Amino acid sequence: MKKTALVCEILLLFGWVSAIGQGKKPLFIAPIGVQAYTYRNSFPINVATTLDTIKSLGITEMEGPNPKNIAPEDFKKMLNERGISMPSMGADYGEITKDPEQFIKLAKLFGCKYIMVAWIPHGKTFTIDDAIKAVDDFNQVGKTLSENGITLCYHDHGYELGPYEDGTLFDYIVKNTDPKYVSFEMDMMWTFHGGADPAKLLYKYKGRWKLMHLKDISKDVANDLTGGTDTKNDVALGTGQINIPEVLKAAKAVGIKHYFIEDESPNHAEQIPVTIAYLKSL
């Protein structure tokens, strides 16, 4: 941990000196958020201790919802006590299409403005039939959420980037969902892993992106359309394959509202401080 702290201090110092020397403003000035799934193994052990750790990192936003071992009301109280807000929460595709009202109620409890869906059920390969069904479901659920002041966001996962007509299946989803009811959350790692350029995709659909997952992927991992990779391949920002500054510039330009670090690695405790220091150094 001492080595990690030293690396963080060096990155921060370099960033500040570089910015002062060049007369530039910091690139990343948004509140730092985290996806609750990052701490999926810690919350079941001790919710309070885990939240204290999150607070100590300077994190002020979380994408939820609450862990399964604590009631939503109790988790909300604990977040409030630590100055952590929850602007967004995740929802299972099958559950929200069947009963959106339960998620609307939960979102209102936490003060969420966004509900994101991170996976469209499909077989070995994501097909146009899967995309067509998702478009229909997203438009319906999105309308219901919108009527309650909440925006539905689909979180891309890479498998939607397979070819279709003159573009991709992801293009089909974006073009056929109603902008009034459906927006998107970019996971920069899954976007890259699926073979797309995250920055270019942000610009291509400017106005549709609202949220972002901050994550990087190990340099020795090849791209594919599986939407999956070993969690050990999640690495601290700036140490993997993705051009993070380029993506963040695009994200800022297209108006991303909230950013959440999602580090699924078993080494996330060591990597997240490095990620945060890197963000502040840009």
Tell me briefly what this model is:
The protein has 282 residues and is an alpha/beta fold. It has helices at residues 2-22, 47-56, 72-81, 93-98, 100-110, 128-146, 169-176, 188-193, 198-204, 244-254, 268-281, and strands at residues 33-35, 61-64, 85-90, 114-117, 151-155, 163-164, 167-168, 182-187, 209-214, 216-217, 234-235, 258-261.
Question: What does this protein structure show overall?
Answer:
It is built from eleven helices and twelve strands. 44% of the residues lie in helices and 16% in strands. An eight-stranded parallel beta barrel has the order 1-2-3-4-5-8-9-12. The protein has a single domain, classed as TIM Barrel (Alpha-Beta Barrel), CATH 3.20.20.150. Helix 6 runs parallel beside helix 7 and helix 9 runs parallel beside helix 10. The protein is globular. Helix 2 links the parallel strand 1 and strand 2. About 3% of the residues have low confidence. It is of the alpha/beta class.
Task: Please describe the topology of this protein.
Elements: H1 2-22, E1 33-35, H2 47-56, E2 61-64, H3 72-81, E3 85-90, H4 93-98, H5 100-110, E4 114-117, H6 128-146, E5 151-155, E6 163-164, E7 167-168, H7 169-176, E8 182-187, H8 188-193, H9 198-204, E9 209-214, E10 216-217, E11 234-235, H10 244-254, E12 258-261, H11 268-281
Parallel strand pairs: 1-2, 1-12, 2-3, 3-4, 4-5, 5-8, 8-9, 9-12
Antiparallel strand pairs: 6-7, 10-11
Helix pairs in contact: 1-11, 6-7, 9-10
